[in-house]
Structure formats: C-alpha cells, structure tokens
Amino acid sequence: MRGRGSFLLSILGLSFSLLLALLLRDWALRSPYFRIEQITVKGNRLLDREEILQLAKPAEGQNIFRFKASQIDNQLEANPIVERAKIVKRPPHLIEIRVEEQEPLFLVNRGGRLLVQGDGFTIDPHSPLDLPILSGTDDLGERYAEELALRMKREDPTLLDMVSQIRWEKGITLWLQDGCRVELGEGNFGEKTSHLKRLLALLKDAGDNPGFIDLRFRGQAVVSKGRKL
C-alpha cells in the first residue's frame, strides 16, 4: 500500500508541476511584462543599421515569446550582401538581430556610385568600410581585379590591406596606401603577387620608399622613387 501511495503522490506531484508550467507559460504569453521594447543590431558593416531596424519595427510591442522572427530573417537574407541573419530573443524586453555579411574584396566606382564587388549593391560613399576601390572598369577588369585580390588574400591578407585603389585600363594598376603606384598589366597574378610581396619586404628592410614599381614583364622588376620612370 505504501508503494501505491508513493506512486500516487509522484503522479500528483508531476501533474501539479505540469499544470504550474502550463500556467506560467500562459502567463508569459499574455503578460505585458514581456513586450519587446528594445531592438539591437550586430555584425553589420555594409548594411545601414537604421534600415535593419525599420524591418524589425513591427516587432515592437509584441510579446517576445509570441514574436516570430522568420519574416525578418527572410527579408534580410533576400539582400545579396547578407550571408545569414539570426534573431536572438533576450527576455524580457530585448531582441538582437545578428547579421553575417558577405566579405567583398573591393568596391567598384561606377559613375560616381560605390558598388560592392560581385553583386552591384550600392553603399553609402561615406561608409567606414575600408576596402580598395576599383575604377575605370568593365566586366573583364572586374574579373581581373577579383582574381588579383583573391591571390593577394591567399598570399598574405596584409598585402591586400596595403592597396587603396585599383585601376583597370588595358592592365591593372595599383595605388598603395603610401602613394606608390604598381603596374601589374594583365594576368599571371599569382607570380606577380609573390614577387610584389618579396620586393616590398626587401625595400622596407633597406629603408627605401618607392614611388613606382613595374612588374608587367615576367622576371623583371623596375623600381623608381618617383611616381614613374
């Protein structure tokens, strides 16, 4: 009998716990205490924070447990610059929008507009994003610039960081952050990138600050302190 009584008490205790959980859940879903009052954004560099907040504006005032994040996720991920988006609920009042953006290699100056390489997404000219800017371009020039930038990133990411401008005009010309102009011409960018990295290291060790480097011709390097020969 004692065993049966203990079993009944266990069942009653479990039933009470489930009932209490259901009552708490129902209270949380109805309580004004869990209304969304604050929305934060993390991870955005290219996308405008205010535009993201506008997408999430309808969430304000909703119960945080009833709020369905999928609509905002889908709207953000429809943007070509967004790799993935995630909404994190932080009861009682906060939702956090986490954005993972694509990582472009450079920006494209086309008719005075700055476009993100690869997808044509326009960004604010005053964006804090610090990437090389490609100008004088057509589709072929953008393909060459992408090939070169990928080679640089694989060889040494700091090498790409040294580039401020890329120009395509029957060949690739780079302007480095220190003002040095580098002529690379067309193709063979793997060898030219390695050559440029070694050459810049040697010049730095020697205390030289070149104004012009010509690597257009295989196996040759022309260096001048002026901007050109």
Describe this structure in words.
The structure is a single chain. By secondary structure, the chain is α/β, with parallel strands linked by helices. The chain folds into two domains: 69 residues, membrane protein fhac (Ubiquitin-like (UB roll), Roll), CATH 3.10.20; 118 residues, Rossmann fold, CATH 3.40.50.11690. The strands form two sheets. A nine-stranded mixed sheet has the order 6-5-4-7-8-9-10-11-12. A three-stranded mixed sheet has the order 1-3-2, with helices on one face. Helix 4 crosses helix 6. The longest helix has 29 residues. The model has no long low-confidence stretch (mean pLDDT 84).
- What's the architecture of the largest domain in CATH terms? 3-Layer(aba) Sandwich
Low-confidence stretches: none
Identify the CATH homologous superfamily of the largest domain.
Cell division protein FtsQ/DivIB
CATH fold group of the largest domain: Rossmann fold
* Secondary structure category: alpha/beta
Task: Indicate the mean pLDDT.
Answer: 84
The main sheet comes to:
9 strands, mixed
Compute the gyration radius: what is it? 29 Å
Succession of helices and strands: HEHHEEEEEEHHEEEHEE
Q: How many distinct folded domains? A: 2
Main-sheet strand order equals 6-5-4-7-8-9-10-11-12
Helix content: 25-40%
Briefly, what CATH class of the largest domain? Alpha Beta
Tally the beta strands: 12
From the spread of the alpha carbons, the general shape counts as elongated
What is the helix tally?
6
Strand content: 15-25%
Tell me the distance between the termini.
Answer: 105 Å
